[in-house]
Design brief:
The chain is an all-alpha fold. It has two helices and no strands. Helix 1 packs antiparallel against helix 2. The protein is elongated, with a radius of gyration of 16 Å.
Length: 62
């Protein structure tokens, strides 16, 4: 489930970046939103990592 959600988040991230670069003309806005999107993407990746660790612990102690 975590993998599926992370992949969905990746797709949304890439779509949002593409849309932003197509429509936004203000360089400062692009920089600001790219940073926000990048932080959200890192958070999704780290959430998947946590889910994988928890799954490993659960399987080890099952």
């Amino acid at each position: 489930e975590a993998k599926k959600l992370e992949e969905e988040g990746d797709a949304i991230y890439h779509e949002a970046l593409g849309r932003m670069f197509e429509t936004e003309r203000d360089a400062l806005e692009v920089i600001k939103w790219k940073e926000i999107y990048d932080n959200l993407e890192r958070t999704l990746d780290q959430s998947e990592d946590v889910a994988n660790v928890l799954e490993s612990i659960t399987l080890k102690h099952a």
